[in-house]
Design a protein that fits this description.
Two copies of one chain form a homodimer. The first copy, chain A, contains 14 helices and 16 strands. Chain A has about 450 residues and is an alpha/beta fold. In chain A, helix 5 links the parallel strand 5 and strand 6. The N terminus of chain A is likely disordered.
């Protein structure tokens, strides 16, 4: 963090144009705060459409809504980019109970969600003794006990990580790979502590994947209270859990990235991409994840049009398909860019929620980042406190791999993000209008500066 | 803001001790994030006690709770400092309706709260035509129309202020002085748009005061939707409102500041004060305002004891009485300090909510602030992004006036604060545990540095 701070203090001599830039960014801010549509658009996306997992009818509705909305916002061109998407379906309500403690039958219902992409329990319940472990090391030490049983991973967020995103990265391994690592030793089902520090009992879903070498066992996430209960119980008793899930894949579905363009005046064949992802998990409104990124993207289009801003580079505003459980939209976008030999200068993603701004993280050459850090005083008044190395976004990552495009990710304050991330509580009511608009202002300011000065 | 940024970039050469300081502040952070009690204490204060306006039985309970809790946290000494407090009572439910539009009777119920310290409508409803004005200038231009009518002030937050606290300062005049300014021209009641940009209909109370030269007319606040409705209605129709409030003052009540001390090892007769206010409005749990400040204060005591920190200066942890509608606790504390000829080096208040940290604002000599700004890299990892001129707190203000004590106010991010401030929605559920704890960490870090290096 010391290093970050020194970066923050990199030379900050502003060029002669800086007061013009400050004025233009103030215009952006005033217009967004007075006339911004991001909050209304988010209400439409979350309340009129709602959950929109890839392959669902709602995802198709969201594509139609995105296309129409961006046309209405006055883009020079709006078009759809087709891609095939995995089509995982939860298949009904996930159910789980503790059914026996020390041999005595009980029925304590647990609030659970099957992990995304996981296979259901095959029409009947998985019922077995639970082997509870704190982490993979403990799994290994107990591998002889696992056969025929259910493994419970209690891996917790490390509360001393100042950014919960760090904890999420660490704990994410258990959600993504925990099932197969347990199946390797004969487990017939897996449960994880949800990837959250929330002080509630909402379970959090999210993508997992199987290692094809082992049986594809069902996998569920528990909310925080139930996780604590089970973990404490495991310290004093032997117990059984029964759970039933219904996840399955339907044939791949046709989906689309929604792409709006403002044509560049000087470098029309060089692209700047701004985006978020249009899909969400099936259990919530995807308001922060990633409704916020979708409407940030649309708001920047809106304000550039409202202010009559004519970008030097062509700017693409992209609502990506299928980030959550396939990344097919982001991959398709990069494939097409490469196939068409497009030049992509810069891509910026918002996929960390609609919270108050903190900064931007970059995947870029050190020298270029240093140059950009001179812009910090222009964005600081609106909440940006750093421009640091490290960041981007899942959907724009393939563009960097395919074409070496410089990336940035918008970093809102993430203290609350993992309270609602992939849980039922990621709803419109948990997004604050001003925090949402401030995100769009800082992103628009950064894109304006990149467009004006290049990298 | 440009000036602020330059201050932020003041010389940042860290002294040789800085790595020791970084380590100690990391210890504070780790302990607070792992073992912090602030969230649990806030649950007790908000859920077990609840609303605690000065003079209410709940305020007395809060004093007892604060005293016992700070004893349990291991303070060297905990004592109560008596003060008399105003004892305003809402006297029942506030009621209001639009009862006629263009002469036609209707009954559209409005969600309202009487302003704090306002006099009720005397057992019967105030019923009259409404003269709606955008601001005081429009009031003056319509002064001939006001006699016998109700004045409605539609003064709105300026959304282009990046910090809503600025807007609150501007709009606050209407709440505090609007009634008497309308009564001067013969108004028989006053309504204001609540001091908020919240996207809901909660009315927000808060202190007002009368000018004794004019009749003490009843005064209410409307929620955002009702305010919009009335303002739009006023543009096209003549309409009447009827409202009934019951506010009154009981005889002054005995109250107390709760004071805990850690005795200084080098300068036991020089004090550093950390505080928040224990009272809240009567309509909510006072979770952010100022339960957060109360538990920030207690958490700093807890972590200093947990780490065995022996301060050089004596530190007082003060839960102030009666900030909301009288400031008698803050005044009493300064009076006693002056009467006892105490030396007060520094006072820090948290009374802006339990949100994610942004920085600190100071009332201090410029040279001393510059010195403190060298500490910024030590606090930056935990969320502090500036140490700027301008700030303090209502309760510690009198200490500065009486003794010239240097002041600081903790500035959390305030984008959400005025959504819930003085409204029914200021409840425990709207406080995020991690954001709350981060506030305590940054405050504890600043106090540690002031204690170690002086000013």
């Amino acid at each position: 963090m010391k290093k970050l701070f020194l970066l923050l203090l990199a030379p900050l001599c502003l060029s002669a144009q800086s007061s013009d830039d400050a004025l233009f960014i103030k215009k952006i801010a005033d217009d967004v705060l007075q006339n911004g549509k991001a909050h209304d658009l988010l209400r439409q996306l979350t309340k009129d459409i709602g959950a929109r997992l890839a392959g669902s009818p709602e995802f198709t509705k969201a594509v139609e809504w995105g296309e129409l909305s961006m046309k209405n916002l006055g883009a020079d061109r709006v078009y759809l980019q087709e891609c095939m998407m995995p089509n995982w379906n939860r298949g009904g309500k996930d159910e789980a109970s503790i059914v026996a403690v020390d041999g005595k039958k009980i029925n304590r219902v647990l609030d659970v969600l099957a992990l995304g992409n996981s296979m259901g329990s095959g029409g009947k319940a998985v019922k077995a003794k639970v082997i509870a472990v704190a982490n993979f090391a403990e799994l290994e030490s107990k591998k002889e006990l696992i056969k025929g049983n259910i493994v419970y991973y209690n891996y917790k967020f490390d509360p001393t990580n100042i950014e919960p995103g760090t904890s999420y990265g660490q704990a994410g391994l258990y959600r993504r790979t925990g099932a197969s690592r347990a199946a390797k030793y004969g487990a017939i089902g897996v449960m994880i502590r949800s990837l959250t520090e929330a002080t509630d009992n909402n379970p959090h879903t999210g993508a997992m994947a199987y290692n094809d070498s082992f049986p594809k066992i069902p996998a569920i996430a528990l909310g925080g209270y139930d996780a604590d209960y089970i973990w404490n119980l495991s310290k004093q008793s032997s117990f059984e859990v029964s759970f039933k899930t219904n996840g399955h894949f339907l044939p791949d579905a046709k989906g689309h990235n929604v792409i709006a363009e403002l044509k560049g005046t000087e470098f029309p064949d060089q692209y700047i991409t701004i985006g978020g992802h249009l899909d969400s998990w099936d259990v919530n409104e995807g308001a922060h994840d990633d409704g916020a990124g979708v409407v940030h993207t649309m708001e920047i289009l809106r304000v550039f049009k409202a202010l009559g801003y004519k970008p030097k580079h062509s700017i693409r505003f992209v609502l990506f398909a299928n980030e959550e459980n396939g990344l097919r939209g982001g991959n398709k976008y990069a494939e097409e860019a490469k196939a068409n030999n497009e030049k992509h200068l810069f891509a910026l993603e918002s996929d960390a929620g609609g919270f108050t701004p903190r900064g931007f993280g970059f995947t870029i050459e050190e020298e270029k980042l240093k140059k950009m850090q001179a812009w910090l005083p222009l964005l600081f008044p609106y909440g940006t406190t750093y421009l640091k190395m490290g960041g981007g976004g899942a959907d724009i990552g393939p563009l960097n791999k395919a074409l070496g495009t410089a990336l940035a990710g918008f970093d809102p304050d993430d203290q609350r993000y993992f309270d609602i991330h992939h849980a039922r509580s990621d709803v419109f009511e948990n997004v604050n209008k001003r925090e949402l608009l401030l995100g769009a202002i800082n992103m628009a300011g950064l894109v304006y500066l990149v467009d004006k000065y290049g990298l």
